[in-house]
Design goal:
alpha+beta; three-stranded antiparallel sheet; three-stranded mixed sheet; 6 strands; 28% strand
Length: 197
């Protein structure tokens, strides 16, 4: 069972303390994985004729997430592996679609092309990502099974590594941590209790 904890962030930089063990497996021998997240919240707006003035507060958080060596390596390579698999799947889907279009009657091209594009290209991407995840689980590390297939699409920063065993969601000035390992989540909550909302 997972553990979910929410915090209200202060404008500017925020930081949270993690237990001194791997957030995935609990191993005490850790390496810190550097992850940065940013968010904006609209705090005021003023509308004049032809001009709209918006004022935002910026919230940022720098996380030093502890991992054992194995899970540190998986977190570093998970996103690049899935991005490459997505591109390959998209291209394979486009090639398959091109072959199929040649077989369809010409009057059907315009009416069905968009649906076929979505089906083949996005479906191909998901299938190749799934295959890459299965192969990575089999040949690289078993913890790849916990990497969500489309997780990198939700994250707007492709340079930030995937946080294995933990999901971080930021909505304006709220940050939510979801831990797979319940004990690690409870320890994290105790260490950061003063900043809980």
């Amino acid at each position: 069972m997972s553990k979910k904890i929410s915090f209200v962030m202060k404008p500017g930089d925020n930081s949270y303390t993690f237990p001194g063990e791997c957030v995935y497996c609990g191993d005490p021998n850790t390496i810190k994985l550097d992850c940065k997240h940013r968010s904006k919240k609209l705090i005021s707006q003023h509308v004049e004729p032809l001009v709209k003035h918006l004022k935002y507060s910026t919230y940022s958080v720098k996380l030093l997430v502890p991992y054992c060596q194995d899970h540190f390596n998986v977190s570093k390579i998970a996103k690049p592996v899935l991005i490459i698999a997505t591109v390959v799947g998209f291209l394979l889907g486009a090639v398959a679609l091109n072959g199929l279009i040649g077989l369809l009657p010409e009057e059907m091209h315009e009416s069905i092309i968009f649906v076929l594009f979505l089906t083949f290209c996005i479906g191909g991407s998901v299938l190749v990502q799934l295959l890459a995840k299965i192969l990575a689980t089999r040949f690289l590390h078993s913890s790849f099974r916990d990497v969500p297939i489309l997780a990198w699409l939700v994250d707007n920063d492709l340079s930030r590594p995937h946080t294995l065993g933990m999901v971080v969601k930021i909505n304006e000035n709220h940050i939510t941590f979801s831990f797979i390992n319940r004990q690690i989540g409870e320890d994290f909550e105790k260490l950061n209790r003063k900043t809980l909302n």
